[in-house]
DNA sequence: AACATTAACAACCGCAAGTGG
DNA sequence: CCCACTTGCGGTTGTTAATGT
């Protein structure tokens, strides 16, 4: 059994052989850095010192040892770090009598010897968190580890990769069912985590200012009218820019929705006082009415469109999200969009959808209360606000039961409309600065929306609506609980959910 | 029992950011 | 500013244990 790598350099050959021999003895009990390490210490120490001296008694720096750590090495490292503290790993190497590079020492300490390490398999809660984190951040193992006390990035990475392989082999979705769309979608063009491998890390991204997507995605209000006849629509086309990485992620629109979205060219951009045809897209918050893109910055082709998080197209977060992405290849289309200002012109394919700058309205008190109105013959209306966090629906279900999605709205109230209909007021609450929500109105109705103030949105004459949304607090790793349940149609006049309308965006009718 | 496959784990490598002289 | 060094991160590979055939 070969246990160590033998360095190819001739000068090192003798040492390598010696090390190999020693290793063969050391490893006769399988790698175990557990509780019984102490009893072997004496023998191991002798072996170790013998090895070191035998191999390099003649002077010159011994080659740094590779391969598994022995209990004795562990003890030395542990003793040293406990006495001198962490850091200065090359000093550790020199002063602790360890023939290991500082890097190796650091790794061994961080992954195995640290006293605060939590051993054993991941429990369900940890697994749940890992999946959440991966959805949000992709392969940011260190970041995940910082949110999982006692766990190391390496541990998480190993777990994930193993899980990934297992799921891929079994043909299972990478993320659990409860994250999947309610609308079946077999198109799997989105990236898989594997595809993110080998790509540059986020901190390797060019540091150039990428204007647009942050602005476009981060704080905007999306108002879309999508005419698809009487077909229902899921208010879900998430696209977000990762807060931590700057990566752009997207959740694909189901194929059946795609048709209705794009076969009928009835998209509108909501401006402060008028509607305008799609194609007059807004960049940096400023709508243009001539079909030309107006930007104060540039949109770089280098914008990274890695999809470390929403790799699976099946994820429907039940939210209207900023961009409408035709199904085929989301990332391709995002690339196209990003790289080509033309794509935002009047000839664009609708991917950008319709955007209105919420901040533009909200920042100016005089603009509050403006009504956005769209004459809509038929269709479902979607409003969504998106900030910086992806949606998360831990309790949603795809099985048709009535387990509701989480919803962010902190307050919803109905009011009497002069026209006799019911209005719904969505109060987001300022304590949820990173909120995400969407609401779909009834098919076939005209949807009016206006900001009452900077955190309330009035939907006029919407007797029924379908809210969804959630919030995941990156700092606390906790999902903020909403005050009402989403994922079901609400009757705003009776202020109750519509029977039989749970967990389906299909409008059930009054 | 022997072999093959898979899962879990450990460790290394390359790269890049940070830091201090 | 440059350079060397340290540190941290993520990808990858290698090894062993467990399981299946």
Oligomer: single chain
Main β-sheet, spatial strand arrangement: 8-1-10-13-16-19-20
The 3D shape can be described as: elongated
| First-residue to last-residue Cα separation | 73 Å
Q: Strand-residue fraction?
A: 15-25%
Q: What percent of the residues sit in helical stretches (DSSP H or I)?
A: 25-40%
The averaged pLDDT comes out at: 45
DSSP, total strands: 20
GO molecular function: DNA-binding transcription factor activity; transcription cis-regulatory region binding
Region (Disordered): 23-72, 185-206
Subcellular location: Nucleus
Biased composition (Acidic residues): 34-53
Explain the overall architecture:
The chain is of the alpha+beta class. The protein has 3 domains: 10-113, Arc Repressor Mutant, subunit A (Orthogonal Bundle); 124-172, Arc Repressor Mutant, subunit A (Orthogonal Bundle), CATH 1.10.10; 193-502, no CATH class. It is 26% helix and 17% strand. The protein contains 13 helices and 20 strands. The termini are far apart. It binds a DNA duplex (21 and 21 nucleotides) through helix 5 and helix 8.
């Amino acid at each position: 059994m070969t246990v160590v790598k033998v360095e190819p350099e001739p000068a090192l050959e003798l040492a390598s052989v010696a090390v190999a021999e020693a290793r063969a003895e050391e490893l006769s009990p399988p790698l175990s850095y557990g509780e019984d390490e102490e009893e072997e210490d004496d023998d191991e120490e002798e072996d170790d010192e013998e090895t070191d001296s035998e191999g390099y008694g003649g002077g010159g720096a011994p080659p740094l040892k590779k391969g598994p750590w022995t209990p004795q090495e562990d003890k030395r490292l542990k003793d040293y770090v406990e006495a001198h503290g962490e850091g200065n790993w090359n000093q550790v190497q020199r002063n602790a009598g360890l023939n290991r590079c500082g890097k190796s020492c650091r790794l061994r300490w961080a992954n195995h010897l640290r006293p605060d390490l939590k051993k054993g398999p991941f429990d369900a809660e940890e697994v749940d968190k890992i999946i959440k984190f991966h959805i949000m951040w992709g392969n940011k193992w260190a970041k995940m580890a910082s949110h999982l006390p006692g766990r190391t990035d390496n541990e998480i990475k190993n777990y994930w990769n193993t899980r990934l392989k297992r799921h891929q082999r079994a043909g299972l979705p990478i993320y659990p069912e409860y994250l999947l769309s309610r609308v079946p979608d077999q198109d799997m063009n989105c990236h898989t985590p594997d595809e993110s491998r080998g790509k540059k890390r986020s901190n390797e991204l060019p540091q150039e200012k990428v204007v647009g997507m942050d602005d476009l995605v981060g704080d905007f209000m999306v108002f879309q009218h999508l005419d698809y006849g009487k077909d229902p629509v899921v208010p879900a086309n998430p696209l977000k820019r990762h807060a931590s990485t700057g990566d752009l992620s997207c959740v694909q629109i189901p194929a059946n929705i795609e048709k209705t979205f794009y076969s009928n060219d009835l998209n509108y951009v909501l401006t402060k006082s008028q509607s305008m045809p799609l194609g007059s897209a807004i960049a940096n918050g400023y709508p243009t009415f001539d079909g030309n893109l107006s930007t104060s910055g540039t949109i770089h082709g280098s914008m990274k469109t890695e999809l470390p998080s929403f790799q699976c197209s099946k994820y429907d977060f039940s939210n209207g999200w900023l961009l409408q992405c035709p199904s085929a290849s989301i990332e391709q289309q995002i690339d196209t969009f990003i790289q080509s200002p033309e794509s935002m012109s009047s000839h664009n394919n609708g991917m950008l959808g319709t955007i209105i700058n919420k901040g533009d309205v909200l920042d100016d008190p005089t603009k509050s209360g403006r009504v956005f109105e769209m004459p809509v013959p038929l269709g479902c209306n979607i409003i969504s606000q998106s900030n910086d966090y992806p949606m998360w629906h831990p309790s949603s279900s795809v099985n048709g039961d009535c387990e509701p999605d989480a919803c962010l709205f902190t307050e919803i109230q109905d009011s009497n409309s002069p026209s006799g209909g019911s209005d719904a007021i969505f109060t987001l609450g300022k304590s949820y600065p990173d909120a995400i929500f969407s609401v779909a109105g009834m098919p076939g109705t005209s949807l009016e929306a206006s900001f009452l103030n900077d955190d309330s949105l009035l939907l006029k004459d919407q007797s029924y609506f379908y809210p969804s949304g959630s919030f995941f607090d990156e700092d606390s790793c906790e999902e903020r609980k909403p005050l009402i349940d989403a994922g079901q149609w609400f009757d705003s006049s009776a202020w109750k959910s519509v029977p039989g309308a749970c967990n389906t965006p299909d409008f059930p009718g009054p």
